[in-house]
């Protein structure tokens, strides 16, 4: 007997359907001796196929998460729903506060880790401590832009413990936004939560818990704030520097070459980040880099020749070529 396959049982999402047949009478299939037969999708399948969004096909946007981060309650009308967007690259950390509109996202404020050298952090611009500094810089810059920096100072004593901004009894409320991690894996101790912690300590109201901070133990359900504080001040990097220098001096010089170049030792790291936190609070304003204007380059285009000029040019080339041949013969 043959296996009967109905149209509703055909694959819908690119899977290959394998059918085992026992004779040649079923849907033109070969004999059992020929093995398995792959059913190819028919014309109707491709005519009805709807492609996914471009950024989904490119693997850049998680629309399941984006829909839940951008949809606003109807009783809030046109009130923006702000998102704290954190993106990590090989050499930089980007933090933005944005809200969604039908024509696209609008950026309210942004901060980057490549701005940290202005505040004294010249190396290690993508580690957990730098992520915290970038989030802190974003929060202070945004609140200063909105005129809330004096009302919501945030957490000035960094202990690594849980902290949530308290709204004032009278006056404007705290600026609330929601963490947007994109496609990053939200594992315990991820740098994206370091940026969020910096933004929270900077005075933003972001719903969160301590379960994803460094120092949280999933088995005992306990949170060690001291471990988190060490990460905020880069002590996990300092401890690794000391260990690597003792075990393999060549690997230490290769991996921490920029630290050696700037004269930064493991004992200096905590003071560097403490001073950076203070400097960020003093002046979080973005300073545009003024570049020297490039000189206007002149274009030396050849003038177009008329027909008579082109014919004359060809005649001159012919005469020159013939003269060269005559000189070669003599």
Automatic annotation (TrEMBL):
GO biological process: ribosomal large subunit assembly; translation
UniProt entry keywords in alphabetical sequence: Cytoplasm, Ribonucleoprotein, Ribosomal protein, RNA-binding, rRNA-binding
Protein localization: Cytoplasm
Chief location bin: cytoplasm
An example molecular function term from Gene Ontology annotations: structural constituent of ribosome
Top-rank lineage group of the source organism: Eukaryota
GO cellular component: cytosolic large ribosomal subunit
Residue span, Large ribosomal subunit protein uL18 C-terminal eukaryotes domain: 269-323
Cited Gene3D superfamilies: 3.30.420.100
SUPFAM superfamilies assigned to the protein according to its UniProt record, in alphabetical order: Translational machinery components
Protein name: Large ribosomal subunit protein uL18
Organism: Harpegnathos saltator
Species classification: Eukaryota, Metazoa, Ecdysozoa, Arthropoda, Hexapoda
């Amino acid at each position: 007997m043959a296996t009967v396959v109905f149209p509703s049982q055909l694959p819908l999402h690119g899977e290959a359907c394998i059918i085992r047949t026992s004779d040649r009478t079923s849907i033109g299939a070969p004999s059992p001796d020929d093995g398995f037969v792959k059913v190819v999708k028919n014309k109707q399948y491709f005519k009805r196929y709807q492609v996914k969004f471009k950024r989904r096909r490119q693997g850049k946007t998680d629309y399941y998460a984006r829909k839940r981060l951008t949809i606003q309650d109807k009783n809030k009308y046109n009130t923006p729903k702000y998102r704290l967007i954190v993106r990590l690259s090989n050499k930089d950390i980007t933090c933005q506060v944005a809200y969604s509109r039908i024509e696209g996202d609008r950026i309210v404020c942004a901060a980057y880790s490549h701005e940290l050298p202005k505040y004294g952090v010249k190396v290690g611009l993508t580690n957990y401590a730098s992520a915290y500094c970038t989030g802190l810089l974003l929060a202070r810059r945004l609140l200063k832009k909105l005129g809330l920096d004096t009302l919501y100072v945030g957490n000035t004593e960094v202990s690594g413990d849980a902290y949530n901004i308290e709204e004032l009894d009278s006056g404007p409320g705290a600026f609330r936004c929601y963490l947007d991690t994109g496609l990053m894996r939200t594992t315990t101790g991820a740098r994206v939560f370091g940026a969020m912690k910096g933004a929270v300590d900077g005075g933003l109201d972001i719903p969160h818990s301590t379960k994803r901070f460094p120092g949280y133990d999933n088995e005992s359900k306990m949170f060690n704030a001291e471990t988190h504080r060490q990460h905020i001040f880069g002590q996990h990097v300092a401890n690794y520097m000391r260990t690597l220098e003792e075990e393999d001096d060549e690997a230490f010089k290769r991996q921490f070459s920029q630290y050696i170049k700037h004269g930064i030792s493991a004992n200096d790291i905590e003071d560097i980040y403490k001073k950076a936190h203070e400097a960020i609070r003093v002046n979080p304003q973005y300073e545009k880099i003024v570049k020297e204007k490039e000189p206007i380059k002149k274009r030396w285009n050849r003038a177009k020749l008329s027909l008579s000029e082109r014919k004359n040019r060809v005649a001159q080339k012919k005469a020159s070529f013939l003269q060269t041949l005559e000189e070669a013969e003599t």
